[in-house]
Amino acid sequence: MSSVQIRLGRAVRRLRLAHGSSQEKFALDANINRSYMGQIERGEVNISLTNLERLAEGLGMTMGELMTEVDREKQ
Predict the structure, then answer these.
(1) Which SS3 state, helix, strand or coil, does residue 59 take?
(2) pLDDT per position in the chain (75 positions), as tens?
(3) What share of the chain is helix, strand, coil (3-state, %, to 5)?
């Protein structure tokens, strides 16, 4: 597992929970398989740009804003 994958997963989980959405509902809304969503949040997969865009849109942000949140996970 890559450090950036783990940070992305942590950021997505934190932001999803802040929106009050379950993993299953968020995955459905973002058009991502629920089990794959779990793998993303655990940092187990290297996602495509398409899925990164889906995550960002599901969180109501741009991909750049999402990656800024990923950078915050370094601290």
Answers:
(1) coil
(2) 679 999 999 999 999 999 999 999 999 999 999 999 999 999 999 999 999 999 999 999 999 999 999 999 986
(3) 70, 0, 30
Q: Which domains does the chain have, with CATH numbers?
A: 3-69 (1.10.260.40)
pTM confidence score: 0.92
DSSP 52: H
On the CB side of 46, CA atoms within 13 Å amount to: 3
CA within 13 Å, CB half, 16: 24
Q: Which residue has the tokens 């989980």?
A: 13
Residue type, 52: L
- Give every CB contact of residue 17 below 8 A, 6+ residues apart in sequence: none
Asked if 27 and 34 touch (Cβ cutoff 8 Å), the reply is yes
